[in-house]
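In the design runs reported in the main text, the only information available to the sequence generator was the tokenized backbone. The following block is the verbatim input for one such run; it is reproduced so that readers can re-run the procedure and compare outputs position by position.
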């Protein structure tokens, strides 16, 4: 996969793309990153990328020419997905990360100003994405979130292939609790069942704890998945526990 990032602040990406899984994926040749300063594609000699909005009002608007030129310069033959990072975009979800991980070429566009000229939205980008309902000073941090969530899904990017499928949101449930040594720390014990070596019981416990967490923290996620008979039985057990104790988890 090739990922091109168009930004006015390329230095923001240095650490993130060079470290850990994202850096290793590039070293292994699984992904290639290019960080492009789209000011270099301005058509003015001063490198202007923004201008005042027609109709007046505050703030500046990103001009179309630099971004069209920059996208066209990185596009080569095939048509890449061109993703505009903006608070008005479609809420970013694991499902979109999975879809984007199937692409050959992504172009992420990061703005830092009040807005983008509407012709960028209408005629240049294929997707508009927001990473949540809060305002960032620019699209760069959001683009890093997208790159991270996509690259970790590329085959070979994670050392352990299993961890990409089991984690929260690919199963549709939040992850169950994890424990490691020591078996007792400051008087707090690891649940006996995890030390039992009984694999089927452990899997059943993990599923129950995943459901408990999801029910407590993100109940709306339960409406979005298909429940197996085992899940339905466990949810009934959890409901029963809740009724009997008032507060299940204290
Ligand atoms: Cl993609 N950009 C900005 N500027 N703010 C955001 C965002 C993106 N997603 C959430 N807030």
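Verbatim output:
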């Amino acid at each position: 996969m090739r990922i091109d990032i168009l930004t006015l602040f390329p230095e923001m990406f240095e650490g993130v793309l060079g470290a850990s899984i994202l850096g290793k994926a590039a070293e292994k040749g699984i992904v290639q990153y290019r960080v492009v300063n789209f000011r270099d594609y301005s058509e003015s000699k001063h490198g202007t990328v923004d201008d005042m909005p027609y109709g007046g009002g505050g703030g500046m608007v990103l001009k179309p020419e630099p971004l069209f030129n920059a996208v066209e310069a990185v596009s080569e033959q095939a048509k890449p997905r061109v993703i505009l990072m903006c608070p008005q975009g479609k809420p970013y979800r694991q499902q979109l990360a999975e879809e984007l991980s199937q692409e050959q070429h992504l172009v992420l566009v990061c703005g830092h100003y009040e807005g983008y000229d509407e012709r960028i939205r209408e005629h240049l980008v294929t997707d508009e994405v927001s990473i949540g309902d809060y305002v960032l000073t620019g699209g760069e941090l959001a683009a890093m979130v997208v790159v991270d969530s996509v690259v970790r899904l590329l085959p070979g990017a994670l050392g352990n292939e299993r961890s990409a499928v089991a984690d929260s949101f690919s199963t549709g449930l939040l992850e169950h609790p994890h424990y490691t040594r020591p078996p007792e720390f400051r008087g707090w014990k690891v649940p006996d069942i995890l030390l039992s070596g009984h694999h089927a019981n452990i899997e059943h416990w993990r599923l129950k704890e995943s459901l408990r967490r999801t029910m407590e923290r993100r109940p709306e996620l339960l409406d979005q998945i298909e429940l197996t008979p085992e899940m339905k039985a466990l949810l009934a057990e959890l409901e029963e526990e809740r009724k009997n104790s008032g507060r299940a988890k204290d």
